[in-house]
Specification:
Helix content is about 25%, strand content about 25%. It has three helices and 13 strands. The chain is of the alpha/beta class. Strand 12 and strand 13 form a beta hairpin.
């Protein structure tokens, strides 16, 4: 019976991988900019305006990450007299060689410089300078990449 479950699991995994490839290709066709050797795991949402998202060479985006390129609250504001034309859209740019952890939310008008690490499960509402590590909710500066490297050699760091 175990082999049956393994076959079924493999079948559904292949379907999910295919759906992910179709989704990413659709986003590229709608303007998503991807550099060379970018890894985007299953379950990533580029949002309804993929043309506002750019991910540079060698960056890795973990599963569950969501790119939010606009504020949905403006729909409600547009119902108020004098606010009919309110819009809140912004670009998101991920630099070269960045790592974005699982289940992150990256808001509009945010840029990650090169060589950045964003810890898992965090909301990023401000840009990250190159060579930095951010974590927390909302995500804030933790350390430089050099400090992170040294910390990894000597043990873990709790954020």
């Amino acid at each position: 019976m175990n082999i049956f479950y393994r076959i079924i699991n493999k079948f559904f995994t292949l379907i999910e991988d295919f759906k992910h490839k179709v989704y990413i290709q659709t986003c590229i066709n709608n303007g998503l900019k991807l550099g060379e050797n970018v890894s985007i795991r299953n379950g990533v949402s580029v949002g309804s305006e993929p043309f506002l998202v750019e991910i540079s060479d060698g960056s890795r985006i973990a599963s569950g990450t969501t790119f939010v390129t606009h504020s949905g609250a403006t729909v409600n504001l547009r119902k108020i007299s004098g606010y009919e034309e309110v819009r809140n859209f912004g670009r998101i740019k991920i630099g070269k060689n960045c790592a974005v952890g699982s289940n992150c939310v990256i808001l509009q008008d945010v840029e990650l410089g090169d060589n950045c690490i964003l810890g898992a499960n965090y909301v990023l509402s401000e840009s990250m300078p190159s060579n930095t590590v951010f974590a927390g909710n909302p995500a804030t500066y933790v350390c430089e990449i050099e400090d992170y490297r040294l910390e990894e050699r000597g043990g873990g760091r709790e954020w």
